[in-house]
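Researcher: I'm comparing several assemblies side by side, and this is the next one on my list. It has 611 residues spread over two chains. Same procedure as the others: predict the full complex and return the structure.
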Amino acid sequence: MTASLPSTTPVEKSVSTIRTVPRFSVGQRWEHSIVLISIVLLLLTGLPQKYRATTWSQQILTTPDRLYAIQNIHRIAAVVLTLLVLYHLGHTLYLLSKRHLSGNMLPSLQDIRDAFQMGRYLLFLTNRKPKFGKYNFEQKFTYWFLFFSIGIMVVSGFILWFPIAITRILPGEIIPSAKLAHSTEAIVTLVFIVIWHFYHVHLERLNLSIFTGWLNEKDARTYHPLEFERLTGEPSEPRQTGDDH
Amino acid sequence: MAKHKARYTLLLLIVAGLLVFAAGLKESTPARAQETSQYCLGCHGKPETSMTLPGGETLSLYISPEMLQNSVHAQAGIECSACHTDIKSYPHPENKYATKRELSRAYYMACRSCHSVNYEKTLDSMHAKAAEQGNLNAPICTDCHGAHDVQKPDEPRARVSTTCGRCHTQIYSQYKDSVHGGALIKEDNPDVPVCTDCHGVHNIHDPRTEQFRIEEPDLCAGCHANAELMSKYNLPSNVYDLYKLSWHGVDVSVYKARWPTIWHDSAVCSDCHGVHNIRKTSDPASSVSSQNLLGTCQKCHPSAGPNWVGAWTGHHEVSLSRTPFLFYTQAFYTSFTPFVLWLSILYVVLQIVRSVVDRVRGSLSK
């Protein structure tokens, strides 16, 4: 809406104007940065603990004091991430109560249709990519995958942090289960981020909108045509005016 | 009557003489070697032979001929002078020792001349250290093996443990009631450990050190990871492998690899099962029986509650019947999660293929 620039008088050819559309709020960008930093810290301090029996880990953890040090860093980062999760859930509930929650991150039937269409496209059965809105099904999948991953990591992490208190209420086998879940889910999350998320935001195209807050016009037209049309009121594919989208 | 008796005695003497002659023919070497023994026993074979040492103790000089004859040395033909090298004839050189102990500690050096390897080992032992610190009662060869009555030290096997138990009385009384000691003493079991199997023989080290503690799981595993041996007693042989995967076991393996000289508090076998008083896990008196397990955990985890013992899976495979929640957690991570990850990977690979094909097509059509 606010992004559309009024057509100005022709300027010098060396100056090009890049139109942008808004994508993420300042709060969302902060949330992403905090998640990013805390997850990197948690992985850096968690993996040497998981692989304590290996030589590379033992070369980092050369003394018991170093182990205690990285355990403390791990716990501090864990508290930060937990507070962020609580903020995120609280903020969502607040928006929900004010009826301001857009709901565009919720999975929908359209996502299944889009995924099906995308599958056909990837198998060369069609040359038409589905037209996505603000969040495509890939991005929703990223969000919900990490939502549950972080949920599992936070819950199992606190069980491991306070095992004696936890077993006052819950059965003892919750401890080895939490250990297994925490240890495995960490790797699952790491693999998922590296394969899925890094491909989509670094290789497919360099998408820095989560840091800048803006998406340029070209990417908006190509990857989020429906959102572009909604925001600007212009067709996403200017030449094909007869398109029914 | 008297005449008859005299004839009878004569006959006996002849028979005895023949027997001795025959024995002499058969084993001529030991018999000759023991000629000097016979000479010595001329005096030392009399029970009343004794002397008073300068310290005031009375030293019996009596050597029972039967006892001497039964010793492994006598049977191998080793004579008195092999050990008593300073005594060549009578009268003997004058005694230089004030007490019996002083005399023993001087004379046992004779063992060294034949058993030098074992002697060298003893110098590295806890017992030698105790002696260096001034404890003259610390054992020397003869305290364990005997002097004139040396026998094979491990026949029967229980002899080893009773020998140690002469000084280590309290430990021996715990051991003889344990699963190992009981089987040894009551059944002469050939597989259970005697003291020396765990502590070593001549170079017995202090078992309270960091090094002994860090090696301990491997020590127990020497038998308890031996499938053939354990199957004989219907015991699982995977306890050590499962322990190594457990929280305690991983901790111990790291200390062993990196910090073997730093004391660690992660539980090793004996912390839970006991040391000399180990019992069958099915025995209600065992420190890991269902009645006692929580108390055993609380030695290290003092505020743990009753549910805590359920957290212990260190010797058990994950099973649906014993730990269902853990079983389902494992199932989740071995089926659902890999499925989702592989699907994601497949999707990204297809995306890469399609985008590469599109780019190549695009550049060709230009």
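Model: For your comparison table: Residues 89 and 203 of chain B are 37 Å apart (CA to CA).
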